[in-house]
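Subject: sequence -> structure tokens, single chain

Hey, anyone have a minute? Need the predicted structure for the following. Not urgent.
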Amino acid sequence: MNNTKVKISIGEDSFEIEGSEEFVTKHLEEFKELLSGSGKSVPSKKTPKAKTKKNTKQTKEGEDSEGKSTSRSKTRTKKVSAERFDIHGGDGKPSLQEFLDEKKPGRANGPRIAVIGYYVTELLGHKNFSEGQVEYAYKMLGIKRPNHLHQIMINNKNEKDYYEPLEGDESNWQLTRTGEIFVADNLPSDDE
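Reply:
Had a minute. Here:
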């Protein structure tokens, strides 16, 4: 397969497009449209990305002189209500505290949440576990709850793949096969 390569220079800026002739032609045409009379321009490195205070006049709170929003508010932490479940064990099942002591997940939230999820789903027989149950476990065990529990769970889902949210319901989670194996077979780790 032959590759086609085009180098475009505008002033001090330049870029290259490389690929099949069809690919390069398509993107070259799109670039030509941007440069032609469509009213759009290609920003150069010298063009400031943001308006300075000098040329942005506040008209209303949160808007600049053109009526565009200027506020950059922080996202509030989602309120998670504790959801009770049996953490005391019995009938041959360990308590949640005994299970955590046995598995020794460490201080990181991801492995702790995986152990809590395993306890709720595998030992108690629930189909899934909720952020509320994780909240309840942290409170009852006297473990400092992370401020952004939902985001920590999403980050660990993406990084470790221990658990995933149920489709269409981001406050209920299920262990992945990786999470089940991690808790059942890899904890406590050999480092202990």
